[in-house]
Write the structure tokens for this entry.
Amino acid sequence: MTGKGAVWLASYPKSGNTWMRLLLANLIVAQDRPVPINQIELPSHRLMLRSVVEDMTLIDTSLLTRSETERLRPGWAECIIAQATERGFTKTHDHYRRNDAGQGIFGAAPGMSAVYVVRDPRDVVISLAHHVGGSVDEAIELLNRDMRHRQEPGCHTRRFDEAWSSWSEHVRGWLDQADMPVHCVRYEDLLADTSGAFAAVAHFLGLDAPAGELQRAVDFASFDQVRRQEQANGFKERMPRSTAPFFRLGRAGGWREALSAQQQARIVEANRQVMTRLGYL
């Protein structure tokens, strides 16, 4: 892989981010066997880790408020990227937003870009409910809740606090920002034509890979392959209270059978504009 800079692999939770990371890892690492799901080793600048910033600046970030942290995050990211010798990938579920100084909190360094994976919110809530061990109605409430109702976190975490926002806010935040180029890929399109959709991602990132290598990555990251790995070895990103495997079904449109008419209406009512924009309505 050539070039410097940073690639944000962004999505609302349970939208296909892990699958995208596996596809990229199986392309870039170029092994003769699938990348283990518990060792997804992409080059990374670890831009979301507090320890990286604390080692660089000697600032104890636990002493900062969220607004203070977000005021400093753009400069921190740009400094880390400027010192890097290769391009790195960083997964995030964080909502793209601006701090109180008007800066995008992810920075705007040269060579920075984003791949944004989006999924029909009606399917997201089903996977999210299983993932967090809650009800579908609770997942719908979470999906529809806007930033104004988010609580200030009360603990010091290893990573910078992620604000999910509502599903619509999340999508608009990433797709409408102008700080970096972004390539949007729908989970449904990735399912329907994995090779074609992933080839478009690779092209956006400037990854010069022969068709055979792209296909190998697709085969190594197939749903059946990663599900077998989870069945054999578990998956470290699966939450302890989850009520289903992390790689549960790997299909689109399950909401038609799983959601009541009232539940479907609640999601559509809150997210109609963005769902229409993305072709979900």
